[in-house]
Amino acid sequence: MWLRRDLRLGDLPPLIAAQESGDEVLICFVVDPRLEKSSGPRRLSFLFDSLRDLDEQLSGRLLVVRGRPDEEIPRLARAVDAMSVHVSEDYSPFGRRRDGAVAEALGDTPFEAVGSPYLVSPGRVTKSDGEPYKVFTPYFKQWRSHGWRAPASSSVSATDLVDPSTIKRSGRIKIPAAPTELSLPAGERAAAQRWRAFVDDDLPGYDDDRDRPDLDVTSRMSAYLKFGNIHPRTLAADLGRSKGAQAYLRELAFRDFYADVLYHWPKSAWHNWNSQFDDIALDTDKSAYERFDTWKAGRTGFPLVDAGMRQLAESGFMHNRVRMLTASFLVKDLHLPWWWGAQWFLDQLIDGDMASNQHGWQWAAGTGTDAAPYFRVFNPDTQAGRFDPDGEYVKRWVPEYGSDDYPDPMVDHKAEREEALRRFGEI
Ligand code: FAD
C-alpha cells in the first residue's frame, strides 16, 4: 500500500483492496524530492506530522523512504515479493505522469488504483454529450445526482503489517522534523477531532456565518482534505439536510469541480483558462514588483486586505472571503498577473492546492470558468463593512490600524477600478 494524498487508515478503499489481495501488507510513503522542493515549509510540516501520526497509530510500522517513486516502489515491491501495489488514484497532472511511470517500472506486478481524494472523481460528471462542464451550477446539479459511495470501513492492526525493520536494505529514513510550527495540528486523529467540533458547534450556523472572517467558524478541513487525513465522503455522511449542511456540501462540490477543471484543462494551472484574456495589459515593470511586495507584506493601507495577507504570512491560512478580496485587489487594483499571487499563496498556505488555488485565483481575475464576470471588482471598504462589521478581524491581524504607523492607501480604489475596466475594454 503506497500512501500519497490519503494519509489516514480509516475509510481507505485501497487499504481494503491490499488486505484482500494478500496475507500481509507493507504500508509505505515515498518522500519525493521534486515535491519537497515545491511544497513550501508549512505543507512539508503538515505532511511530516501526518506521517508521524500514522506511524504512531501503526506502532512504528510505516515505512518512509526518500527518492523517485518509479525507482523506490518497484525496489520495495521486489524486496517484499509483492503480489500487487495499491494506491488511491491521483488525478493531478503531476500525479498522473508519476503514476504512469511507476506502473511501467513495476512491469508484471499489478498497480491497482481505487478511490480518489474527491467525492466524485474528476472526469465522472459530464454533460449528456460527454463534454466536461465549464460552469459550476450545472456541474453541481449533475454532481449531486451522480452520488458517491458510503464511507469504507477500513482498519488495520500492526500485526497484519510487514515490519519494515525485517526488510533488508529497505532504504528507511526517519520521518523528517517539521521545518516550521503549524497553526493547525496535522494528522488523521486531529482531523477527526476538529470535524466533530465543527459539526457540533458551527455547522448549524454555517450557511449564515461562513462569509464572516471575524467569527472564525469555518471547518478548517481544507488542509486535512488536501493530505487525505480525512475523506470528503466521511464528511458528507455526517451532514444531514439542514441549511448549513447543504451549504457545506456545495463547498465540497466546488473542490471537486476545480479538480475536474484541472483534469480536463491541465494548462489552466498557470495559464488563463479563458485565453480571450491573454492579451490584457498587465504591469510587470520594476514598480509592479514593489507593489507586489507591499501586497505580500500586508502594507497596502486597505485594512481588510492587509489583515488577510498577514493572516496568511503568520498562520498559513486565510479565510475564503478574504482570499477572494486579496486576489481581486492584486489583479484589479494593482494590475499584476494572477499567477504571481497564486504562487505566493502556494508558498504560504498549509492547504495550498493546485486545483483550488489556481482556479480560485482565476475566478477572482475573471479569466477562469465563467461564474465571476471580469467586470466584478471587489471594493475593499464595502467588503470590510459587510463581512467584518466590528473590525474584529482587522484588529486581530493589524493591531496598529488607526495609528500613525499604519500606511495610507497605496492606490485610489475608484481610479484603479476604472483602469481595470479600461484595460478589459481594450481587449
Ligand atoms: P470551509 O468553509 O469550512 O469549507 C469546507 C471545505 O470546502 C473546504 O475545506 C474546502 O475543501 C472546500 N471549499 C470551500 N470553498 C472552496 C472553494 N472556493 N473552492 C474549492 N474548495 C472550497 N482551498 C484550498 O483547499 N486550497 C487552496 O490552495 C485554496 N486557494 C484559494 C485561493 C483563492 C484565491 C480562493 C478565492 C480560494 C481558495 N481556496 C483554496 C478555497 C477556500 O478559500 C478554502 O478551501 C477555504 O477557505 C478553507 O477553509 P475551510 O476549510 O475552513 O473552509
Automatic annotation (TrEMBL):
The protein's UniProt keywords, in alphabetical order, are: Chromophore, FAD, Flavoprotein
Photolyase/cryptochrome alpha/beta domain span: 1-119
Matches recorded under PROSITE patterns: DNA_PHOTOLYASES_1_1, PHR_CRY_ALPHA_BETA
Q: Does the keyword section mention Nucleotidyltransferase?
A: no
Keyword Thylakoid attached: no
Named cofactor requirement(s): FAD
Judging by the UniProt lineage, the source's domain of life is Bacteria
- Name the InterPro entries on file: Crypto/Photolyase_FAD-like_sf (IPR036134), Crypto/Photolyase_N_sf (IPR036155), Cryptochr/Photolyase_FAD-bd (IPR005101), Cryptochrome/DNA_photolyase_1 (IPR002081), DNA_photolyase_1_CS_C (IPR018394), DNA_photolyase_N (IPR006050), Rossmann-like_a/b/a_fold (IPR014729)
Q: Which family does it belong to?
A: Belongs to the DNA photolyase family.
* Name of the protein in its database record: DNA photolyase family protein
**Organism this protein belongs to:** Gordonia tangerina
